[in-house]
């Protein structure tokens, strides 16, 4: 039932440098054809052949037979040869993975170099002592019990349907090798301050000083040297969705290690407007975050988008429609996705990944809809009894904050959503604030708010009830609303099933309904204190057909010009806030 998009894949998918935030010259993309098989609990092999990395075996783009399912107790075996020359053996060689769902062991030339648990975050292993010039072997053994053992699973479910999607497994982001001198630059951390027009650069050179150079469109504007950190002052142009100004950054240590990155100077926070209402802010001024929910699922690659061009097209469409924000829902994207948000100018509300046991409908939907809240120290209520899975979440929080800290566009962290595996949210909110005080936090988006003062936002999900702005000392946002659906024949995952919060039959009906929703119901709330709104959603996903485009990205259900007209009227109202 999956649908094929029109984007070409190529022999080495996702061939661009996977980490523009910290790029080195000497790297080797390991995407492409790998040897692959599934081994069941009894040791029987099946699906022996090739797989196209980085696409999961359940996807069309993987090249694995349709109908692939990883049963309980089974695991995957990936292997390939890797040819290395002296440029990849400079002193330190690191093997990097964008993401593997959900746990894996990695062997290089027969030696176990490490393991990782958590299907959405990046990880790496130092393979210096086991790699050699010429032919090398790489093997990855993957287990995926996340949907069964309470691990991070996102929107995947063994009983897919509605807002829950087909589970997938294995390598689903880029794999690559990187080589640098033995003494190299580590732990790059970039902290801009729009109010002071400064940027603080911190890094570990492993001894000695780091030379730093800053460029504006290729022209050098700043240089300096530092050991641990340096604060650069300049009349920087400030970054915003309306003016996504980026500066290029180059770091070099005494051993000849060179890292290239970039930054934008911006600050997110809260201010009080002239009427005494608390507002979210960008660069010290009130800013209305007008966004759309993005699940990041694709009909031919599921969690893995087909190519860079597909992401650029989709993000450009959202910009041209007049949105300034994307809420990345229950997923961590490849780092290039964030780079495109940085350079195109879209702020990102970044969700963490939910885990836990089986969610009860009454707990995560029915009772919260009636206004019932529950203390999230009750692990059983939120299906969080599994201590090992809670520990995995704890580790993942640090991994996400470290991996995405330098992303210019991320304005909001969202630790929990609608009670899905929620627990100890006050503790995690305080921890995220401590580790990253530069961003806003939506602690428990949607339901089970644990109290005023424990989060930056009063965060509402409103689909069936009237839109409103409650009395609350925090900034109020509609972190989910809308969800209007329209079925496009020939472009649906399942012709017999469809999910949406309000259904329309034609484009004209859908656009007319959006005009009423935005201009009659949402727009008046801005003056009353509404600080942001996230419409559900960018694309259809399987039988959830409430997207602006279809699941196969073949049909745009809401014309760009129509959505732009609506958003322009909304933002004209928001511009009146002072």
Question: What would you note in describing this structure?
Answer:
- This protein is α/β, with parallel strands linked by helices and 578 residues long.
- Among the domains are: 27-180, Galactose-binding domain-like (Jelly Rolls); 186-263, Immunoglobulin-like; 288-325 and 457-578, no CATH class.
- Strand 18 (247-253) and strand 19 form a beta hairpin.
- The longest helix has 21 residues, at 507-527.
- 47% of the residues are buried.
Keywords summarizing the entry:
about 575 residues, alpha/beta, Jelly Rolls, eight-stranded parallel sheet, 34 strands, about 15% helix, globular
What is the element layout, followed by pairings?
Layout (H helix, E strand, L loop, with lengths): L26 E3 L2 E8 L5 E9 L21 E10 L7 E6 L2 E2 L1 E6 L2 E7 L5 E4 L7 E10 L2 H4 L20 E2 L3 E6 L5 E8 L4 E7 L5 E7 L2 E8 L2 E5 L13 E7 L4 E6 L4 E5 L5 E5 L2 E2 L2 E6 L13 H13 L4 E4 L6 H10 L2 E5 L9 H9 L17 H18 L5 E5 L1 E2 L7 H11 L4 E2 L2 E2 L12 E5 L13 E7 L1 E3 L15 E3 L2 H21 L2 E7 L23 H15 L4
Summarize the structure.
With 578 residues, this protein is α/β, with parallel strands linked by helices. Helix content is 17%, strand content 32%.
Shape summary: globular
Distance between the termini: 50 Å
Main sheet: which strands, in order across?
28-26-25-24-23-34-31-30
Largest sheet geometry: 8 strands, parallel
Q: Bin the helical content.
A: 10-25%
- Gyration radius over CA: 24 Å
In terms of DSSP E residues, the strand content is: 25-35%
Number of strands: 34
Low-pLDDT regions: none
Total of DSSP H or I helical runs spanning 4+ residues: 8
Average of pLDDT: 95
Secondary structure category: alpha/beta
């Amino acid at each position: 039932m999956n649908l094929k998009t029109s984007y070409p894949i190529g022999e080495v998918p996702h061939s661009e440098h996977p980490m523009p935030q910290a790029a080195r010259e000497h790297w080797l993309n390991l995407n492409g054809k790998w040897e692959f098989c599934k081994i069941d609990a009894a040791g029987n092999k099946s699906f022996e052949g090739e797989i196209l990395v980085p696409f999961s075996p359940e996807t069309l783009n993987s090249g694995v037979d349709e109908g692939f399912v990883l049963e309980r107790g089974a695991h995957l075996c990936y292997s390939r040869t890797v040819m290395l020359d002296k440029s990849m053996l400079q002193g330190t060689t690191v093997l990097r993975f964008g993401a593997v769902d959900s746990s894996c062991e990695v062997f290089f030339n027969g030696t176990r170099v490490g393991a990782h648990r958590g299907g959405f975050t990046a990880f790496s292993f130092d393979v210096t002592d086991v790699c050699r010039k010429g032919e090398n072997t790489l093997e990855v053994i993957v287990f995926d019990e996340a949907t069964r053992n309470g691990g991070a699973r996102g929107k995947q479910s063994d009983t897919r349907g509605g807002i829950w999607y087909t589970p997938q497994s294995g390598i689903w982001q880029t794999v690559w090798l990187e080589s640098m001198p033995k003494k190299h630059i580590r732990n790059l951390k970039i902290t801009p301050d729009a109010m002071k027009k400064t940027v603080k650069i911190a890094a570990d050179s492993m001894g000695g000083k780091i030379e730093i150079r800053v460029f504006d469109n290729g022209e050098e504007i700043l240089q300096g040297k530092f050991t641990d950190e340096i604060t650069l002052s300049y009349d920087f142009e400030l970054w915003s969705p309306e003016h996504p100004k980026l500066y290029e950054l180059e770091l070099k240590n005494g051993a000849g290690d060179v890292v290239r990155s970039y930054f934008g100077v911006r600050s997110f926070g809260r201010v009080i407007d002239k009427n005494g209402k608390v507002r979210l802010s960008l660069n010290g001024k009130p800013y209305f975050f007008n966004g759309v929910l993005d699940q990041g699922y694709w009909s031919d690659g599921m969690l893995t988008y087909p190519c860079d061009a597909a992401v650029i097209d989709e993000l450009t469409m959202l910009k041209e429609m007049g949105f300034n924000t994307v809420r990345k829902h229950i997923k961590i994207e490849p780092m290039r996705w964030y780079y495109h948000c940085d350079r195109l100018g879209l702020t990102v509300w970044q969700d963490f990944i939910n885990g836990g046991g089986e969610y009860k409908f009454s707990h995560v939907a029915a009772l919260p809809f009636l206004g019932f809240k529950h203390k999230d120290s009750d692990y059983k209520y939120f299906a969080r009894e599994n201590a090992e899975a809670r520990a995995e979440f704890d580790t993942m929080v640090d991994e996400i904050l470290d991996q995405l800290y330098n992303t210019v566009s991320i304005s909001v962290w969202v630790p929990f959503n609608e009670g899905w595996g929620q627990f100890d949210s006050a503790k995690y909110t305080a921890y995220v604030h401590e580790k990253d005080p530069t961003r806003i936090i939506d602690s428990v988006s949607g339901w089970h708010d644990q109290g005023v003062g424990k989060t930056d936002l009063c965060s509402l999900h409103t689909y069936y009830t009237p839109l409103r702005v409650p009395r609350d000392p925090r900034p109020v946002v509609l972190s989910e609303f809308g969800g209007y659906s329209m079925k496009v024949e020939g472009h649906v995952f399942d012709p017999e099933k469809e999910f949406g919060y309000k259904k329309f039959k034609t484009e004209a009906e859908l656009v007319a309904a959006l005009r009423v929703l935005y201009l009659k119901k949402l727009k008046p709330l801005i003056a009353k204190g509404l600080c942001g709104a996230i419409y559900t959603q960018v694309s259809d996903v399987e039988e959830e057909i409430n997207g602006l485009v279809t699941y196969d990205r073949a049909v745009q259900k809401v014309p760009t010009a129509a959505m732009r007209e609506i958003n322009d009227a909304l933002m004209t109202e928001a511009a009146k806030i002072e």
